Amino acid sequence: MMEACDCVVLYNSAATAEKPGSREKSYPATTAREDVGAIAGSLAGAGYRPEVIAVGRVTADLIRRLLELAPRFAFNLCEEIDGDSGMEMAFAGLLELLGIPFTGSDSFALGLALDKFRVKQLLEAEGIPVPLGGICRPGSTSMFPPGMKFPVIVKPGREDASLGVNGDSVCATAEEVGRQVRYIHDVYRQEALIEEFLDGREFNVSVIGEEEPEVLAVSEIDFARLPANEPKIVSYRAKWDETSAQFGGTTPICPAAIPEGMKERIDSIALASYRAVGCRDYARVDMRTDASGAVYVLEVNPNPDLSPQAGFAGAARAAGFSYADIVLRISESAIARGDRFEPAIHAF
After folding, report:
1. How confident is residue 347, by pLDDT bands cut at 50, 70 and 90?
2. CB 198 within 8 Å of CB 131
3. Which label site among 4, 21, 249, 280 has the fewest CB atoms less than 10 Å from its CB?
């Protein structure tokens, strides 16, 4: 007789459809899910009995299956549902309604983090430095926030995985801004975020924990090998097209070579940003410096890639943790949350 599972690993089925007119194509790396098997294997190696479930759409059958399994916790890797990243928070909300403790941030934080301009406003209100910026909604005639200086970067206001970020995203003229704003309006059907472009160093800061979060390590993106005609950004192709010059020209260096005083400031800003957005268990805070070396937060990502070769796992290794260590630490955080409340459906 097969043993009952005590946890589930939930992940979204790969969406291969491309938006009409988009320059961001589907590459092999965008459909590969190396994190799923690695996480399930780490859990099994620690004595758990995980059941892996691919989530295409939320159906009555899926809900019945989760209720029947009654897992002690879910390792939640669902970043979109049916190709819609806006449904990420809805799926987390479903787990909350079902009373299943799950890893990662709650539904509110996931939804908030997807709205880049709202996060920008929140961080600024908390005294956390962010680049000057604004949004241009579809149908608006105003394309350039007052007081902003060129160059600027234009990107979708509600996407992740660098969707909508390409070689034309950094703009030096109002004409270029208009072109890129129209591209986002027409293809992504959402507001465009326009920010002053900080042409300095770029850092990815991995944070782990809930009540007492800590920085694992600071990673820096090395742009030295980017082609001269490419802006120094991590575009969609740089992130996903493994055969491209952009991918090869954006190499992470972890831990980053930075002075201790700068490291302390980066850590402090990362933890403040993590708490402000309401992240828990794990997240990544992306930052850049200006010409003077001042540090600004670009984005807070509550669901960074947890694949063994991705940046978060690399930061964990740099901090002295194995891949299994972080999987178990994240899982134990979800279990502890479940134990703090009355049992809902699980029976372990």
Report:
1. very low
2. yes
3. 21
**Cβ atoms < 10 Å from Cβ of 112:** 20
Q: Residue 287, Cβ neighbours under 10 Å: how many? A: 25
CA dist 156 and 271 (Å) reads: 25
- pLDDT tens for each residue of 218-263: 999 999 999 999 999 999 999 999 999 999 999 999 999 999 999 9
Name the strands in the sheet holding 73-77, side by side, starting at the edge strand that comes first in the sequence: 50-55, 7-12, 73-77
pTM over 0.90: yes
Angle at 298 between CA 292 and CA 299, to 5 degrees: 155
Q: How far apart are CA 158 and CA 163, in angstroms?
A: 9
pLDDT digits (tens, 9 = 90+) for 123-176: 999 999 999 999 999 988 666 767 889 999 999 999 988 999 999 999 999 999
Single-letter amino acid code for the residue at 105: S
Assigned token pair, 93: 């909300």
Distance, in Å, from the CA atom of 79 to the CA atom of 88, rounded to the nearest integer, reads 5
Classified as helix, coil or strand, 2 is: coil
The answer to whether 215 and 274 are in contact (CB under 8 A) is no
Say whether the peptide bond before residue 255 is cis (omega within 30 degrees of 0). yes
Q: In whole angstroms, give the CA distance from residue 288 to residue 131.
A: 9
For residue 21, give the 3-state DSSP assignment.
coil
Annotate 201-228 with DSSP letters as a single string: -EEEEEEEESSS-EEEEEEEEE-TTS-T
